[in-house]
């Protein structure tokens, strides 16, 4: 089962969802805010992709975090920090066929789903 983790109103998540929908990919959407997330899940992502790849330091949530929390962000405490503040996660996170992708990149998704060419645009 393919699962896309993100937040409904995130533009990058919307792009990923449109890409998956246009290709008829069967997936489940997991809203990080509404559905929550465990530290075990974020630990798995951090282990697979690297905690620095999963942690979004460019977002509003990071900028609003207490300086002491920012200073202690490391491999050991990142999973708990991400579970506590899911909007710190770089979005979307895609789990497909035992692979994890952070962020959205059309070429990467095409490779992951074995697609050589983009879909035909809809007829006008």
Structure in words:
- With 124 residues, the protein is α+β, with helices and mostly antiparallel strands.
- The chain has a single domain (2-112), classed as Glutaredoxin (3-Layer(aba) Sandwich).
- The protein contains 8 helices and 4 strands; from the N terminus they run βαβααααααββα.
- It has helices spanning 11-22, 32-35, 39-49, 51-54, 60-64, 67-71, 78-84, 106-112, and strands at 2-6, 27-31, 93-96, 99-102.
- It has a 4-stranded mixed sheet.
- A hairpin with a 2-residue loop joins β3 and β4.
- α3 (39-49) packs across α7 (78-84).
- The termini are far apart.
Distinctive features:
124 residues, globular, alpha+beta, Glutaredoxin, 4-stranded mixed beta sheet, 15% strand, 4 strands, 8 helices, 44% helix
Task: List strands and helices in order, with pairings.
Elements: E1 2-6, H1 11-22, E2 27-31, H2 32-35, H3 39-49, H4 51-54, H5 60-64, H6 67-71, H7 78-84, E3 93-96, E4 99-102, H8 106-112
Parallel strand pairs: 1-2
Antiparallel strand pairs: 1-3, 3-4
